[in-house]
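Run log // design_07
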């Protein structure tokens, strides 16, 4: 009986996340590379992130806008696609980048305080030579809600 209840609760939670309204998108830039990023600037959107997605377009991602500049961490629970995350400071510079595996509950954290995190398909940053210190354009128009 407990197992049935657990499966029901899990299905309900997945359905609730799937019913969140679509997130607004913005254009960011990393040098000459343009990114179409969904904006997760509310707690419920940050909590869901890219969970349950089966694929993501090549130059698409999700930017997380945090309420405070801090050493934020990300994980991949219920996330189906491999991702790379760049933690970004208030000035728009990449602090550090971490590769993350699907379904992992391992925490990947900012090396120093960050205001944003940008998730892209795994390897996206490395394939374009984008490293810590690179400044992203377009973040200035985002503000925590």
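design_07 sequence
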């Amino acid at each position: 009986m407990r197992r049935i209840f657990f499966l029901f609760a899990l299905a309900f939670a997945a359905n609730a996340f799937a019913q969140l309204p679509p997130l607004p998108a913005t254009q960011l830039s990393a040098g000459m590379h343009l990114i179409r990023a969904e904006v997760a600037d509310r707690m419920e959107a940050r909590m869901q992130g890219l969970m349950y997605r089966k694929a993501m377009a090549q130059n698409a991602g999700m930017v997380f806008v945090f309420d405070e500049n801090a050493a934020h961490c990300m994980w991949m629970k219920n996330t189906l696609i491999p991702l790379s995350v760049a933690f970004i400071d208030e000035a728009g510079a990449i602090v550090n980048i971490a590769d993350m595996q699907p379904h992992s509950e391992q925490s990947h954290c900012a090396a120093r305080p960050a205001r944003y995190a940008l998730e892209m398909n795994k390897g996206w940053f490395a394939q374009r030579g984008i490293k810590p210190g690179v400044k992203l354009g377009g973040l200035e128009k985002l503000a925590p809600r």
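The longest strand covers residues 60-70.
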